[in-house]
Design brief:
Number of helices: 16
Structural class: alpha/beta
Oligomer: single chain
Helix content: 25-40%
Number of strands: 16
Radius of gyration: 22 Å
Length: 399
């Protein structure tokens, strides 16, 4: 596919006043054809400008579409950048810088880095979580182009270092706290085997060592119940979005309601998703579920959730490119218009974590996070340019 491409020299990329001309822009009110979009100091100032004022660097976007940048509330594919093989780890600057480029190549401009805070050693340990947070909020601010935020996936059975986690919540470095429980319940052989295989893929532990870990953690998990309620209270105190994870019974949904959960991640079926929405939670599901044709765990599919109107947002989960492709797939399946579907990866995620006053839409006063893409092309290779707060941070050749 050939189309006109964005032409920007280095002075334009660093300029605070940019006019994107001739673009078809997806706004909250629908498409604006052949629009001129003005950006100043990293924010949209005018969406349908008739005459470009003096002092603006001009970008020819004729033949391209402007889409709001993708907001990914839950993504952990970065783990494979850090640990591509069991027990094989790479330095964070290499792994996370590489991951940053993969995010941009998939159209993701705001990324809630989903860091697991577990009792496991290695990749999902508290030590690894600490190093990741320190890197992202330290050196990462200078070298990462995607807007990174911290999503802590706290395992209920992890009782060690409780005060440190409380301190993180109080410091303002965490934006989403999700409550996870991946520990297999006693007697559930299917869950036990699945968890065993999962740990083997991200560690060099033997089966015997994993089994011993499960036994030790199970014996003490009750000690974490009081800690958990304190974490929930701290999340509400500091305005941190609280998420449940994999609710698969009415009792778990009722507990999530009691905790005033804002985001219900991956509810198991339509009824539980509907109950989550009834108490005000936004239902979040994984885009790979849609792209692959169903849940890899055999639970509710995204297509089923859309048909029953119980889906609010999509996330990358474990595969970034799926998040770009998913809105095109929903349109292809006749389940949603493209405009509605794109809101599942932009404005609706922004609303669910209370950043819609800054992110998620092409509208005056909001951050200029957007993609310039070739029209009607469902693969990430359609992306010509990626902008974060008005700065072009990635550019690609499109055929």
């Amino acid at each position: 596919m050939k189309t006109n491409q964005t032409i920007l020299d280095s002075s334009t990329r660093n300029n605070t006043k940019i006019a994107i001309q001739g673009v078809n822009a997806l706004t909250p009110n629908g498409w604006l054809k052949d629009a001129t979009v003005l950006i100043e100091n990293g924010q949209f100032t005018s969406i349908d400008q008739a005459i470009t004022p003096d002092g603006f660097h001009l970008v020819n976007a004729q033949g391209l579409q402007m889409l709001p940048g993708i907001i990914d509330l839950h993504g952990d594919a970065f783990e494979r950048m850090i640990c591509p093989r069991p027990g094989v780890n790479f330095p964070l600057p290499i792994a996370i810088a590489d991951n940053d480029r993969n995010l941009l190549a998939s159209g993701i401009t705001t990324f809630y880095c989903s860091i697991t805070d577990s009792y496991e050693p290695g990749l999902r340990s508290r030590e690894s979580a600490r190093k990741l947070i320190d890197f992202i909020l330290g050196i990462g601010k200078q070298i990462l182009n995607c807007n990174h935020r911290i999503h802590i996936r706290h395992e209920e059975a992890n009782i060690a270092g409780h005060q440190e986690l409380c301190d993180w919540l109080g410091s303002g470095c965490v934006q989403i706290l999700s409550i996870n429980d991946h520990l297999p319940p006693p007697g559930n052989q299917k869950r036990f085997s699945r968890y065993l295989n999962s740990v083997k893929q991200r560690s060099s532990m033997s089966i015997e060592e994993i089994e011993q870990l499960i036994t030790q953690v199970t014996e003490r998990r009750h000690e974490g119940y009081a800690q958990l309620e304190q974490l929930v209270d701290l999340a509400h105190t500091y305005g941190i979005s609280l998420a449940s994870h994999d609710d698969d019974t009415p009792e778990k949904v009722a507990l999530s309601e009691q905790r005033q959960v804002a985001i219900a991640e991956f509810p198991a079926n339509v009824d539980l998703a509907a109950k989550s929405r009834e108490y005000g939670a936004a239902v979040l599901m994984g885009a790979p579920n849609l792209v692959r044709g169903g849940s890899h765990l055999g639970l509710m599919s995204v297509a089923e959730a859309v048909k029953h109107n119980v889906l609010d947002c999509l996330c990358s989960d474990y595969h970034y490119p799926s998040l770009f492709y998913a809105p095109f797939k929903l349109k292809e399946l006749g389940l949603m218009s493209f405009e509605q579907a794109w809101s599942l990866v932009s404005s609706r995620p922004a609303a669910s974590v209370k950043i819609s006053d800054r992110k998620g839409k092409i509208a005056p006063g909001l951050d200029a996070d957007f993609l310039l893409v070739a029209p009607d092309h469902p693969l990430p290779s359609a992306i010509a340019s990626v902008y974060v707060v008005g700065k072009e941070v990635a550019r690609y050749h499109i055929r």
